[in-house]
Design a protein that fits this description.
Blueprint: H1 3-13, E1 14-17, E2 22-25, E3 41-43, E4 46-51, E5 54-57, H2 58-67, E6 77-79, E7 92-94, E8 109-112, E9 115-118, H3 126-142
Antiparallel strand pairs: 1-2, 3-4, 4-5, 6-7, 8-9
Protein backbone atom coordinates (compact mmCIF):
# COMPACT_ATOMS: atom_id res chain seq x y z
CA UNK A 1 0.00 0.00 0.00
CA UNK A 2 1.53 3.33 -1.03
CA UNK A 3 1.37 6.50 1.09
CA UNK A 4 -1.61 8.00 -0.79
CA UNK A 5 -3.65 4.82 -0.36
CA UNK A 6 -2.73 4.71 3.34
CA UNK A 7 -3.71 8.38 3.85
CA UNK A 8 -6.99 7.81 1.99
CA UNK A 9 -7.71 4.75 4.14
CA UNK A 10 -6.94 6.74 7.29
CA UNK A 11 -9.23 9.59 6.22
CA UNK A 12 -12.02 7.10 5.46
CA UNK A 13 -11.85 6.01 9.11
CA UNK A 14 -11.38 9.43 10.70
CA UNK A 15 -13.26 12.71 11.02
CA UNK A 16 -11.32 15.96 11.31
CA UNK A 17 -12.19 18.02 14.38
CA UNK A 18 -11.20 21.67 13.78
CA UNK A 19 -11.48 22.56 17.46
CA UNK A 20 -8.72 20.17 18.50
CA UNK A 21 -6.81 20.25 15.21
CA UNK A 22 -6.89 16.48 15.09
CA UNK A 23 -9.01 13.50 14.29
CA UNK A 24 -11.72 11.42 15.89
CA UNK A 25 -12.65 7.85 15.04
CA UNK A 26 -15.59 7.65 12.67
CA UNK A 27 -16.63 4.16 13.91
CA UNK A 28 -15.53 1.46 16.36
CA UNK A 29 -12.54 -0.36 14.81
CA UNK A 30 -10.80 -2.45 17.45
CA UNK A 31 -11.00 -3.26 21.11
CA UNK A 32 -9.96 0.18 22.31
CA UNK A 33 -11.14 2.56 19.58
CA UNK A 34 -14.63 3.95 19.95
CA UNK A 35 -16.60 6.19 17.64
CA UNK A 36 -15.96 9.83 18.56
CA UNK A 37 -12.79 9.15 20.57
CA UNK A 38 -9.73 11.26 19.77
CA UNK A 39 -7.55 9.21 17.43
CA UNK A 40 -3.91 8.64 18.21
CA UNK A 41 -1.41 9.45 20.92
CA UNK A 42 1.83 11.34 21.38
CA UNK A 43 4.92 9.44 20.23
CA UNK A 44 8.33 11.13 20.13
CA UNK A 45 6.71 14.58 20.58
CA UNK A 46 4.47 14.00 17.54
CA UNK A 47 0.72 13.34 17.61
CA UNK A 48 0.54 9.98 15.80
CA UNK A 49 -2.29 7.73 14.62
CA UNK A 50 -1.98 3.99 13.97
CA UNK A 51 -3.65 2.68 10.80
CA UNK A 52 -3.04 -0.84 9.42
CA UNK A 53 0.08 -1.29 11.56
CA UNK A 54 1.51 1.98 10.20
CA UNK A 55 2.07 5.10 12.30
CA UNK A 56 0.98 8.36 10.66
CA UNK A 57 1.67 11.87 11.88
CA UNK A 58 -1.53 13.81 12.50
CA UNK A 59 -0.08 17.03 11.03
CA UNK A 60 0.68 15.26 7.74
CA UNK A 61 -2.87 13.90 7.61
CA UNK A 62 -4.31 17.36 8.27
CA UNK A 63 -2.09 18.83 5.55
CA UNK A 64 -3.13 16.07 3.10
CA UNK A 65 -6.82 16.52 3.93
CA UNK A 66 -6.77 20.24 3.12
CA UNK A 67 -4.08 20.43 0.42
CA UNK A 68 -4.11 16.96 -1.18
CA UNK A 69 -0.31 16.95 -0.91
CA UNK A 70 1.84 14.29 0.72
CA UNK A 71 4.87 15.74 2.49
CA UNK A 72 7.79 13.46 3.28
CA UNK A 73 9.95 15.16 5.87
CA UNK A 74 8.90 16.19 9.38
CA UNK A 75 10.58 19.55 8.76
CA UNK A 76 8.32 20.23 5.77
CA UNK A 77 5.55 21.57 8.02
CA UNK A 78 5.94 24.36 10.54
CA UNK A 79 3.58 25.21 13.40
CA UNK A 80 2.99 28.97 13.25
CA UNK A 81 2.46 29.33 17.00
CA UNK A 82 5.37 26.99 17.82
CA UNK A 83 3.13 24.44 19.58
CA UNK A 84 3.87 21.06 17.99
CA UNK A 85 0.60 19.52 19.17
CA UNK A 86 -1.54 22.27 17.62
CA UNK A 87 -2.34 20.72 14.23
CA UNK A 88 -5.23 22.99 13.25
CA UNK A 89 -4.88 23.76 9.54
CA UNK A 90 -4.67 27.50 10.21
CA UNK A 91 -1.60 26.80 12.37
CA UNK A 92 0.29 24.81 9.73
CA UNK A 93 2.42 26.19 6.92
CA UNK A 94 4.68 24.46 4.46
CA UNK A 95 8.36 25.27 4.76
CA UNK A 96 10.13 26.15 1.56
CA UNK A 97 13.55 25.36 3.01
CA UNK A 98 15.20 24.34 6.25
CA UNK A 99 18.49 25.64 7.52
CA UNK A 100 19.97 24.43 10.80
CA UNK A 101 22.66 27.09 11.14
CA UNK A 102 21.41 30.02 13.19
CA UNK A 103 17.81 29.54 12.21
CA UNK A 104 15.13 31.76 13.67
CA UNK A 105 13.53 30.43 16.89
CA UNK A 106 10.22 29.73 15.20
CA UNK A 107 8.82 30.03 11.73
CA UNK A 108 8.10 33.58 10.72
CA UNK A 109 5.07 33.65 8.52
CA UNK A 110 2.70 36.15 7.03
CA UNK A 111 -0.86 35.01 6.48
CA UNK A 112 -3.27 36.73 4.15
CA UNK A 113 -6.26 34.46 3.64
CA UNK A 114 -4.84 31.08 2.63
CA UNK A 115 -1.47 32.48 1.47
CA UNK A 116 1.62 32.18 3.64
CA UNK A 117 5.31 32.51 3.27
CA UNK A 118 8.24 31.47 5.41
CA UNK A 119 11.32 33.63 5.72
CA UNK A 120 14.38 31.44 5.22
CA UNK A 121 17.73 33.18 5.52
CA UNK A 122 21.20 32.11 6.55
CA UNK A 123 22.79 34.20 9.28
CA UNK A 124 26.44 34.44 10.31
CA UNK A 125 25.66 34.56 14.03
CA UNK A 126 22.79 33.80 16.36
CA UNK A 127 22.66 37.50 17.27
CA UNK A 128 22.10 38.43 13.61
CA UNK A 129 19.22 35.94 13.40
CA UNK A 130 17.61 37.27 16.58
CA UNK A 131 18.06 40.90 15.43
CA UNK A 132 16.46 40.09 12.06
CA UNK A 133 13.54 38.35 13.79
CA UNK A 134 12.92 41.34 16.08
CA UNK A 135 13.05 43.85 13.21
CA UNK A 136 10.84 41.70 11.01
CA UNK A 137 8.19 41.29 13.72
CA UNK A 138 8.28 45.04 14.41
CA UNK A 139 7.83 45.76 10.70
CA UNK A 140 4.86 43.37 10.56
CA UNK A 141 3.22 45.04 13.57
CA UNK A 142 3.57 48.43 11.84
CA UNK A 143 1.93 46.99 8.72
CA UNK A 144 -0.88 45.36 10.79
CA UNK A 145 0.16 41.91 9.58
CA UNK A 146 -0.17 38.97 11.96
CA UNK A 147 3.14 37.18 12.57
Amino acid sequence: MNKKELYDLALSRLDYDPEIGGFRWRDNYSGNTRKGDVAGSIRNNVWSIGINREVLSSKFLVWYLFNNEILKNNRDICHINGVSGDNRIENLIKRVSYNRSYRIDKCISLKEGRYSFFVAKRFGTLEEAQDFKQKFEEFCRCQNVKV
